[in-house]
């Protein structure tokens, strides 16, 4: 595995996508301490102070068809949730339960971008990951953000909290590589899901075609769709997400 460690970049996604286009091998990782134009899903900005979080992108060459690509992100999110002992909020947020009737606390998220052949075969996928690791506090405008340091302190208030950022990075990359294509990735996602069994509101479409699907999330279909009151909702339809931690 090749890890390219950088100080400041516009976005690890930008660097990793260029490397992928130039032929970078499966498992190549681009990691940065600071991003000037980091982004999350739906164009949201992703920010992290140097030394606090983990910001990296990983090149995957899974083969297969375009229609199966969303399952890679679900598998990676599920693997990260297992490795960090947290939950996953559909489709790709890493969260910690905050109690009944409250939004979950967001620990991180994944952004997937890909290139495909004209016939629909996947050329490569680049997964961008942002994780809150050592942050002690967050701005008031991010009330639902959390970090591994905060969560371990809450769970073990009577003893000192030690979080090794390098160890978290190694576990995170290993989990992504193991679970992105694992045969049991959707079952793992279901077992780590915060979303299932809860009421959700999901905005679909754009412009004049925007509408909101609200109801009970009852399951995850084998193609990665979230089942809401019997209707499948796909990742590409989502126009809003709740509780952004850093962007």
Topology:
Blueprint: E1 3-9, H1 12-21, E2 29-35, E3 54-60, H2 69-84, E4 87-89, E5 93-96, E6 105-116, E7 122-131, H3 148-155, H4 165-179, H5 185-191, E8 199-204, E9 211-220, E10 226-228, E11 231-233
Parallel strand pairs: 1-2
Antiparallel strand pairs: 2-3, 3-7, 4-5, 5-6, 6-7, 8-9, 9-10, 10-11
Helix pairs in contact: 2-4, 2-5
Biggest pleated sheet: 7 strands, mixed
Output the strand order for the largest sheet.
1-2-3-7-6-5-4
CATH architecture title: 2-Layer Sandwich
User: Which stretches are low in confidence, meaning pLDDT under 50 for 5 or more residues running?
Assistant: 40-46, 237-247
Name the helix and strand elements from N-terminus to C-terminus, one letter apiece.
EHEEHEEEEHHHEEEE
Q: What's the CATH topology name?
A: BirA Bifunctional Protein, domain 2
- Compute the average pLDDT: 87
Task: Output the CATH class name.
Answer: Alpha Beta
Using DSSP, what is the number of strands? 11
Q: Rounded to an integer, what's the Rg over CA atoms?
A: 17 Å
What is the CATH superfamily classification? Bira Bifunctional Protein, Domain 2
Tell me the domain tally: 1
Percent in helix = 10-25%
Provide structural commentary.
It is built from 5 helices and 11 strands, in the order βαββαββββαααββββ. The two termini are 29 Å apart. By secondary structure, it is of the alpha+beta class. It has a 7-stranded mixed beta sheet with strand order 1-2-3-7-6-5-4, with helices on both faces. It has helices at 12-21, 69-84, 148-155, 165-179, 185-191; strands spanning 3-9, 29-35, 54-60, 87-89, 93-96, 105-116, 122-131, 199-204, 211-220, 226-228, 231-233. It is 23% helix and 29% strand. Strand 1 (3-9), helix 1 and strand 2 (29-35) form a beta-alpha-beta unit.
């Amino acid at each position: 595995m090749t890890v390219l460690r950088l100080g400041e970049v516009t976005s690890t996604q930008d660097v990793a996508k260029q490397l992928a286009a130039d032929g970078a091998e499966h498992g190549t990782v681009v990691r940065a301490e600071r991003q000037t134009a980091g982004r999350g899903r739906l164009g949201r900005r992703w920010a992290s102070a140097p030394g606090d979080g983990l910001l990296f992108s990983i090149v995957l060459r899974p083969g297969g068809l375009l229609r199966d690509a969303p399952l890679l992100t679900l598998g990676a999110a599920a693997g990260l949730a297992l490795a960090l002992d947290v939950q996953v909020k559909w489709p790709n947020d890493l969260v910690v339960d905050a109690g009944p009737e409250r939004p979950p606390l967001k620990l991180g998220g994944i952004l997937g971008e890909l290139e495909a052949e004209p016939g629909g075969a996947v050329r490569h996928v680049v997964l961008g990951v942002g994780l809150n690791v050592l942050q002690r506090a967050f701005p008031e405008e991010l009330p639902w953000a959390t970090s591994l340091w905060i969560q371990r302190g809450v769970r073990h208030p009577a003893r000192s909290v030690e979080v090794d950022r390098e160890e978290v990075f190694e576990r995170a990359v290993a989990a992504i590589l193991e679970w992105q294509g694992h045969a049991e990735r959707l079952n793992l996602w279901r077992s780590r899901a915060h979303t299932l069994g809860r009421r959700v509101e999901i905005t679909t479409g754009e412009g004049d075609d925007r509408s909101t699907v609200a109801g009970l999330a009852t399951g995850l279909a084998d193609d990665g769709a979230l089942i809401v009151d019997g209707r499948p909702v796909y990742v590409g339809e989502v126009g809003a997400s709740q509780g952004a931690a850093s962007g």
